Amino acid sequence: MTKKQLIKLAVCFLPLLLLLTDPPSGMNPKAWGLFPFYVATILGIMLHPLTEAAILMIFLGLYAVCMKGQQVALSGFALNMTWLVVGAFVIAQAFRDTQLGKRIAYHLIGIFGRTSLGLGYAAAFSDFVIAPVTPSNAARTGGIIFPIFRSVAEALGSTPEHNPNAIGAYLSQLLYIVTMCTGITFLTGYAANTVAWSMTEQILGMQVSWLQWTTCFIVPAGIVLLLAPWLIYKIYKPTITKIDNKRIAREGLESIGPMNRNEKVLCVLFLAAIALWATSSYTGINSTAVVLGFISLCLLTGILKWKDIAVNGQIWSTLAWYGGILGMAGALNKFKFFNWMADWLQTLVDFSSFNHVALLILLVFAGTGCRYLFVSCGAYMASVIPVQYTIGLAAGLPKWDMFLVFLTCGVMGALVTHYANAAGPVLFGAGYVPLKKWWATGLFVTLLSYVIFALIGVPYWRMLGLFTSL
């Protein structure tokens, strides 16, 4: 471990000094005993001296020993949302191993990619199609979609060193916007969604189904998704306009080979999973149950082998990180920490006197500013969303309004930097776009997406009977 890492790790331990003080008046002592470990964990995720999974294991272990809190430390690993996201990572591996994701992308290139703008739409649609079962932006956009379209850019003579603006810069900047649009559209399209989902249930007492989630966000996020290829085309207009997409698609499909039995079975299972998620309110089948059933059928049919799942470190790191953080946040809620914080904030500021819409806007821009501090969207969701919810409860904001607005800020706000989302280091790291340009474009698209969600999303949510602040 380097000196820099050691210093960062030492800083993470500073919140534990709170254990030497008495709990604030009115706070459950159990909440005070857990809170310093929770803050230390968030600091660790922000400063990143070690991986997220390692940080969680360190502070969960210390809490279990020092506070005799092994039940709390393990509680998050039994949650539905933990296994929903872990299971979806396994499904993402099936798409990668069978190369079905690549096949879909090449077919869309053949259909839409005759021009550079059309290629942008092919990239967007490719990401959208596999997003419901690929909760990792890094795995989906960075690991499946971008390598294909980067290969296309390089084949057209656009590399980071030579002629990046020919088309490579356009595609890399575009895909970062696309991955956030597709990520917010589906509960299972973005791993950090499950953190917000958990906070919504634990703090607001709301249960949001897979279908409700998609119904809420598919219209405003879909409009941003449809605008993004054209918008980035105007900002980063490629010098290459015409593309031999039929040849590229043909050669790509030939390199994969004909559609095999595993791809066909996976395609059927994928469609069945979407259908079950969409009809869960009628069938009563839980979203997590659908994922677990999907995995069992993948193993039974031989699409996946357990030895391949066992060596996929991303799956088990996700289990450690999400199970740990959700368990700690859930325990804080059980110990009435967020209720205490709402009461405490109410003694400082009378939020009930605030105009609801003005307070929502204020909290959105405060949350957006916080994005520059976080290298993980999951960490942002675990630390900022509870504060926004708590202030909202103190002010009497409608619960659905808070969920819709703060989730929009939590996901679309990640566009402001290249490090706020796991796909960013992959796409920005390709080297096609200068940092200043990337940040400027990201901030512009973030603000534009807020405007679109306000002008189109809010009336749509009102039509659904959800948004009531106006």
Distance between the termini: 53 Å
Quick one: overall form? globular
Q: Biggest sheet, in brief?
A: none
Strand content: under 5%
Describe the structure.
The chain is an all-alpha fold and 470 residues long. The protein has helices spanning 3-13, 29-47, 52-66, 70-75, 80-98, 100-112, 116-130, 137-155, 168-185, 193-204, 210-235, 245-256, 261-278, 280-283, 287-301, 306-310, 313-334, 337-348, 356-370, 377-395, 399-412, 423-429, 435-463. Helix 1 runs antiparallel to helix 2 (29-47), helix 10 (193-204) packs antiparallel against helix 21 (399-412) and helix 13 packs antiparallel against helix 15.
Short description:
With 470 residues, this protein is mostly helical. The protein is built from 23 helices and no strands. The longest helix has 29 residues, at 435-463.
